[in-house]
Design goal:
CATH superfamily of the largest domain: Umud Fragment, subunit A
CATH architecture of the largest domain: Ribbon
Strand content: 15-25%
CATH topology of the largest domain: Umud Fragment, subunit A
Structural class: alpha+beta
Number of helices: 7
Number of strands: 12
Largest sheet: 8 strands, antiparallel
Helix content: 25-40%
Distance between the termini: 118 Å
Number of domains: 2
Order of helices and strands: HHHHEEHEEEEEHEEHEEE
Length: 256
């Protein structure tokens, strides 16, 4: 056994020489050349097998490499997500800019509160009022207007029946402008006739100054208007006309 271990530490030539030296007969070696070669290759084959198994295990446990295609796909998805976010921010900014322009220069949202304009405008009716038309054309007689009362920080919806320079009064349910009776076609006679008592209370004659408007509610018995506040200055009027969006039964423009 010791002799075999010694062989492992020798190269092929040294082993062959050792074997031939130990031959029993001069011309008969203990091992043939084939047997010597087999012994020499035996150890190397076992080493190769062990190395092959080790390399296989290392390969199996190594993480899968990320290919360049997968990396490019990930980068493309990231860029796409960023692009979508930027597009959303851009669209949101454009929408906000449009809304700001609309509510400051074109139309403004309106919600009617109270019954002072029934039946023309019902309580809680929702719509928009005309800013652009007010700035371009001003206020015409009998236009519905939106008035801001600074002292109470609230908005009123009324009808402008008297214009700057007019002399206006009411007597026995008849409205007089500059001494002449006027027909109030905007009032609903059917609704007016259902009311018991005086529909439009008398008020004394008043002459309007420059940029002053006399505004009344269509539901006269239930309206706090110029009979209570006095004439409204043009600076208090923020828009004119109302286009009702809801309720759908009243859908449409109520002067514009």
């Amino acid at each position: 056994m010791k002799e075999e271990k010694d062989y492992k530490n020798l190269n092929e030539t040294q082993v062959f020489e050792r074997l031939t030296e130990n031959s029993t007969y001069e011309n008969e070696p203990m091992f043939s050349e084939t047997q010597v070669f087999e012994k020499l290759t035996d150890a190397s084959e076992k080493e190769r097998d062990r190395l092959s198994e080790t390399m296989t295990m290392e390969t199996m446990t190594d993480p899968l490499p990320v290919t360049s295609a997968e990396e490019e796909e990930g980068e493309t998805e990231s860029k796409s997500a960023l692009r979508e976010i930027l597009l959303f921010i851009r669209d949101l900014g454009v929408c906000m800019a449009i809304v700001l322009v609309m509510v400051n220069f074109v139309i403004r949202p309106v919600q009617v509160e109270g019954t002072s304009m029934i039946p023309t405008l019902s309580d809680k009716a929702i719509g928009v009022s005309n800013l652009l038309g007010y700035r371009m054309d001003g206020i015409k007689r009998n236009d519905i207007v939106i008035i801001y009362i600074k002292s109470s920080d609230k908005y009123l919806v009324k009808r402008a029946v008297g214009l700057p320079g007019d002399t206006i009064s009411c007597s026995n349910e008849t409205l007089y402008i500059n001494g002449e009776p006027v027909d109030q076609e905007y009032l609903d006679n059917e609704y007016r006739n259902t009311y018991e008592g005086t529909f439009t209370a008398d008020f004394e004659e008043i002459t309007l100054g420059d940029d002053e408007y006399y505004c009344l509610g269509d539901n006269r018995p239930r309206s706090s208007d110029s009979r209570f506040y006095g004439p409204f200055h043009k600076s208090q009027i923020v828009s004119k006309g109302v286009f009702i969006l809801f309720p759908f039964s009243s859908f449409g423009a109520k002067t514009w």
